[in-house]
Specification:
2 copies of one chain form a homodimer.
Chain A lengths: L1 H9 L3 H12 L5 H11 L4 E7 L5 H14 L4 E5 L19 H4 L4 E5 L8 H15 L4 E7 L3 H7 L4 E6 L3 H4 L1 H10 L2 E4 L7 H12 L13 E3 L8 H17 L2 H28 L3 H12 L5 H11 L4
Parallel strand pairs in A: 1-4, 1-5, 2-3, 2-4, 5-6, 6-7
Chain lengths: 315, 315
Amino acid sequence: MPDDLIRRLLHGERVPLARAISAVENEAPDAVAILNACYEKSGRAFRLGVTGPPGAGKSTLVARLAQEYRRRGETVAVVAVDPTSPFTGGALLGDRVRMSDLAGDPGVFIRSMATRGSQGGLAVHTAQACDVLDAAGFSRVLIETVGVGQSELEVAQTADSTCVVLVPESGDGVQAMKAGLMEIGDLFVINKSDREGAERAAFAVRSALELRPPSPDGWTPPVLLTVAPEGKGVSEVVERFEAHFEQLKSHGSLAGRRRRSVEQRMRDLLRAQLWDVFMERVPVRVWEDSVQTLVEHRLSPHEAAERLRRLVGAP
Amino acid sequence: MPDDLIRRLLHGERVPLARAISAVENEAPDAVAILNACYEKSGRAFRLGVTGPPGAGKSTLVARLAQEYRRRGETVAVVAVDPTSPFTGGALLGDRVRMSDLAGDPGVFIRSMATRGSQGGLAVHTAQACDVLDAAGFSRVLIETVGVGQSELEVAQTADSTCVVLVPESGDGVQAMKAGLMEIGDLFVINKSDREGAERAAFAVRSALELRPPSPDGWTPPVLLTVAPEGKGVSEVVERFEAHFEQLKSHGSLAGRRRRSVEQRMRDLLRAQLWDVFMERVPVRVWEDSVQTLVEHRLSPHEAAERLRRLVGAP
C-alpha cells in the first residue's frame, strides 16, 4: 500500500499526494516510509516563504504569485500554515480568497496545515510536506505563514528564501519589525500599496534594513510595492525571488541554508522521539502522583522531574 | 551565596530579586536551588496575562493596570515577554512608554524576559520568574505577551486569568480572533476605543464569543472599552480581573488551571533535560557526519535520527 502510494505520488498524482501529506500531518504509521522515499527524491524545488503580520494580505499575494509562476511555466504547490489564512479555513467572516483561477489547474496544488500540535510539530510537518511536494515534482513550493511568534518564524526558516509582507500602516509603529521579521526577510513587500503611506513604509523598512549586518552572499533585500488583488507588482516579486535563488546558488549559500534547516529538522525529530520513548516508560499513576506533589508545592518542578527520571531509570 | 540571596529575595529585596531572575533566565548553576526555594513559597500571587496582537497598546495598558493595583494597595510585578514591548527594549523608533510614575515605587517591580532561547524555554522561564516574584511577596504579577504564535499562547497559559487586548480595527478582519486569541481570553479589551469602530469591534468580539462553549465555571468573558494613555476604563478592567479571580477560587477552577499549568512546566522541563542528556552523549563529529548524510540526501531525517540514537545507545 505505501509502495504503490509512493510510486504514484512520485509521478505527481494528486490523490496519493494529498493522502501522503495527510499521513505526514497525522503521523500515521505509513508516514515514515513515505518520508524516507520522498526525502531521497527531494531537493530540486525552490521553497519560498511568505510571511508577515495578520491582515497583510499574504494569501492573496500567494495566489497571485502562484498564477505568475504558472505563466512562467513553473508548477506550484502552496502550503498554508497561517492560522489566519483563508486557505487553512481560518476565515471567520467569509473573506475567503477566490482561488477559482488556480483550483482547476493541474500544475497547482494547494494544501493547508493544521496549526495545532506538539511543540515544533508545525515546522517539522511543514518541512516534511514540502519534501513530499518537492519529490512529486513541483518546481516551486510557496509556504504561507503568519510571521509573529517563535514557531512561525521556525516555519519561515524552512524556506530557501523568505518574503516579508507588510502594509503601509506597518511603517508607523514598525511593529512587525520588532517581532523579528526584519531579521528573516530576503525580500520585503509593502502590500495594499494603493493606501496612503506606502512610500513612507518602504522608506522605514529600508532604513531599518540598514541596521542589519550585510548578508555574507552580498544580497541586499529589495523593498517592493504591491497591490495583490490587482496583481500590481507581483511579477517583480517573482523576479526578485528568482534573482535571490540564482544568487543563493551561485554563492553557495543555498547549501548552507539547507544544511541549517535540515539539521534543525533532525534535532526536532530527535527531541520528539526521546520524549515519546520516555513517556512510554512512565505509568499514568506515577505521572499523576508527580503532578500532585507539584500542585501541593511539596516538590518543585525540578525536584519532581528528577524524581520521575530516577523512577523510570531514564538517564 | 544562593542561600543568602534566597533569604534576601524572600524578604522582597530588589537587587537579589533581579539577580535571581537573571540566574533563572540564563540557567545559571544557582538557578535550580533558587527555584526550588521559591516554588515552595509561591502560589499566593494572582497571575494576570495581558496578550494581543502587536500595536494593540498592551504595554501602556499594563502600566495603567499596575498603577490602578497600587492605588488599591496591591504590590505589582510586571513580566514583559512581548518582543514588541517597549519594556523589553524592542521599541525601534523611540515610542517608549513613560514608566516614570512606576519606576520610583518600591511596590512595583518591572522585568523583561529575552524572547530568544530554546523551544519552550520562554514559557518555562516566564513561569519560573513568576514563581520568584510570587515568593518575593508581590500580590499581583502581570505578564505581558504578544498574542500570536504558539509559544506566546503557551506563555499566556501560565497565567491564572488572561486579558486579550484588541483595537477597534481588529473588529474588521477579526484577524486576532483567528489566531487562537478568542479561545484563551477570560477578559477582552478594545483598547484605543476613542478611535472609530470601537463599539462595532466589541460587538464582533461578543458575537464570536457566543460560538465558544460555555465556561464550566459559569464565567462569561466581559468585553470592555479602554483608552489606556488616559486611564479610561482601566479601573473596570481591574475590577473584572478581580471578579474572575474570586470566581476561579470559589468554583475550584483555579486549582485545575494551576494544575494544568504546572503539569506543562514539568513536561517542558523533562523534554529539555532528556535532550541535554542525549546531546552530551553525541560526539560533535558524529553529529556533523549525520548532518552531512542529510545534506547529501543519503539518509532521510528519520533514518539519520535513528542511526544517531543507535550509535549512542539511546533508547
